[in-house]
Amino acid sequence: MTKTLRALLGATALLTLSGAAIAETTITVATVNNGDMVRMQGLMDDFNAKHPDIKVEWVTLEENVLRQNVTTDIATGGGQYDVITIGTYEVPIWGKQGWLASLNDLPAEYDVDDLLPAIRGGLTVDGTLYASPFYGESSMVMYRTDLMEAAGLTMPDAPTWADIEKAAAAMTNKDAEIYGVCLRGKAGWGENMAFLTAMSNSFGARWFDEAWNPQFDSPEWKATLDFYLNLMNNYGPPGASNNGFNENLTLFNQGKCGMWIDATVAASFVTGKDSTVADKVGFTLAPDNGLGKRGNWLWAWSLAIPASSQKQDAAKTFINWATNKDYLALVASKEGWANVPPGTRTSLYSNEEYAKVPFAKMTIDSINAADPNAPTVKPVPYVGVQFVAIPEFQGLGTTVGELFSAALAGQSTADEALAAAQAAVAEEMKAAGYIQ
Amino acid sequence: MSTQSTRMAARFMVAPSVIVLFIWMIVPLAMTAYFSFRLYRLLSPDRTGWVGFNNYVWFFNSPDFWLALTNTLLLVGGVLVITVVLGILIALLLDQPVKGQGVLRILVIAPFFVMPPVAASIWENLFMHPQNGLFAAIARGFGAQPILFLENYPMPSVIGIVAWEWLPFATLIFVTALQSLSSEQLEAAEMDGASAFNRFRYIILPHLTRAITVVILIQTIFLLGIFGEIFTTTQGGPGSASTTLPYMIFKQAIVAKDIGRAAAGGIIAVILANIVAYFLMRGIGRHLDA
Amino acid sequence: MARAASPRKQLITTLAAWSVALIIFFPVLWMILTSFKTEASAVASPPELLGADWTLDNYAEVWSRSDYPRFFWNSVVISVGSTLLGLAIAIPAAWSMAFVPGKRTKDLLMWMLSTKMMPAVAVMIPIYLLFQWLGIFDTRIGLILALMLMNLPIIIWMLYTYFKEIPGEILEAARMDGASLWNEIVYVLTPMAIPGIASTMLLNVILAWNEAFWTITLTTTKAAPLSAFIASFSAPQGLFYAKLSAASAMAILPILILGWFSQKQLVRGLTFGAVK
Fold it and tell me: Structurally, how many domains does chain B consist of?
């Protein structure tokens, strides 16, 4: 026998060994690598103690990769996962397709009526709850109190876009590498388009009219994009067309941004240990233009069970553990109230201890200010504040996001970008059969 | 030595490779060809059916298609030029009797051991970042404005990163090839008063022809399919400035979840690859007298 | 090419060689340095070197946050397994192409290489479905097969070029002595080709180790290798340069060390028939 062959046989033997059976129920939980989920994995001792018969295998991946793997699995009925982490965009679409198991029969201790109505509404299709929120977020303005003070300005409780521009102009000091405002510019339906779609709501714009005709040729979209480009070109950091949530968070924590309008969950990071400006951050509602809608979004990372899972009971046990009130108390006892997953339960915001967390009130006010079922000034046929809950939106949003990102990079004008967006979206909507 | 029985045995022994590779090629290819004529969107399972050439037409009509095609060729060509030219120069250096040759070699081939997504994120975050990157710090040190690599020079940046990944491969092959060059020939040439350039031009370069051919051939095959580095760094942007054909397919398959279009793009990419291979073989294939 | 050179010239070439090598290696070095800094120090501007905040916390956190040994072991099994399986299939094929060449041998080689031309993303769904149907999704054997098939053309080509350099007379002699075909391959050919086989192995282990599309797409938990480990640390919320650097260093270090010990072999063997 040659060495090669022997080594080969050895490898085969190892492979066989690894297939040994395990007696307990093993569930596979797929999740994104965001801070709150990583914290949950650190608290698994509690779950294991309460449910020794259930073993949890984690698949932790970066958001884009996770979404890709989970979507492929669920759309082809792969059945690899028992619990998946998805957002408010996916839940209504997948629920309607029959891809998710109903969570209406979670035990009474789960207390479904305690969920924040706006969040619960986004995860319910025709009276069936298809996912349990793990944390919810809206968006708001985070700003540097010291820079505002130095500029002799005070931030209003409910600023307008004009207030934001004024503050950005006053705080910008490019020689000291301080930029008045940092906003998302990186192309993607969940990156710059999440921000711009929410912003456009406050300018009275909408993606589609009631008959699904795209609206990028409207004056409202033109006003939105012009304002955004003007703001970023004058007061934003260089290279902003490649900045997403992560990049802006880093810049803000380094003290390079006067303001940052982004997810409410960022509040705990900018006031956390990695931030150089932790004690100089103020929070206020996302801006508006006096039209009745603010430029903030609504999102909830939620746990759901694929209909193809063979272990739905164990999966439900896990979801109940990870998203009920006891879990919030568990995190609070181990890591402090500031690290509790925010934005899912009414009871959390009536808790006196939690009220001491600096960003608690602004988070709940922002979440309550968003309405996924009536997101825009003018009527629309779709659900979703910073997205349109149709299967085609990921492709559409990314295409439009690229065009707007190119405009931010100075490769095209706002008018060119809007015209191209209108043409591209109209073509896709025709191909998808929404319009003739 | 080709008796009847050895020829039989030879066929028998090459068969497993040919069979498994054929299956590995034909089954996905057939499925892809099938999907390319279908309406198949992962998230809209109710809408299916034959769509003729619609998916192909979409690609050809897409405003990004020709740009993506150009970028694909630019990426392959750019990386090839950089790796071949720098690879030869570095190989010549490493071939000199210098101190610490072993350590030098491992330093030079180290990029080859770095996973492509890691390589891309090192370059993006630690070097090219307009505020926190090392390049920006150096630019500011000289009182200059940092260069916005990924915004203003997306294609050159991507080409640079990929070239860094593949430079070790090219260098290694050239180093190996140089080792077999007879030193007597070079010494004789030196005695005859041939300049360093002439020695390179008339002795070393001809000796390296085969090595260059191999580098071009193997790298082209790998480079034609690259999209991970683009996804990590520029995401094909800004706009579609750094979108290549594989990245366009990636967007259809992964972002838009339109498997039909992605399949059509795949077939187009295979045809493109075959065209490139054809010209490659016509251009340099004769050096490969296998 | 050891020619006598003037000391001055030697000094210049040494300096030049070292500068070039350090420039090429620098990104890796910088990543490793960054992995030992605190997150704040990692993004400090101007970059900190001597005054940096050095720490081992990133490694501790990365280690405690995920099951590194399992990812590592999967990477080892998959990359070594696919290479060995590939060699087992490729050695006979390369033998027959080298010693019993036909008119179409070159075309056959080119055809084999051309199987690598389909962009991975385009066949993602077909391969995904196939793996589900065959029940080898998220198994190490599935990944071994996939990576073996991906690298098989390269393996065959490399081996073919090494075998071609072995003079046919030796095989003739063995045959005269009555050696069977099997014995001929095992006892005569293989030992002579050991250096070539070794560098083929090395190159393919590296290629398989670094593969980061199929290894993530076709796995969930059981078979996920280090590429998936990296994907669980890239682009999370928050400052991440230092932790990402630490995770990256942990992923590439094993293969870097392997490369360190085998660089002589790689340098000698990576010819692809490029040398006559």
Answer: 1
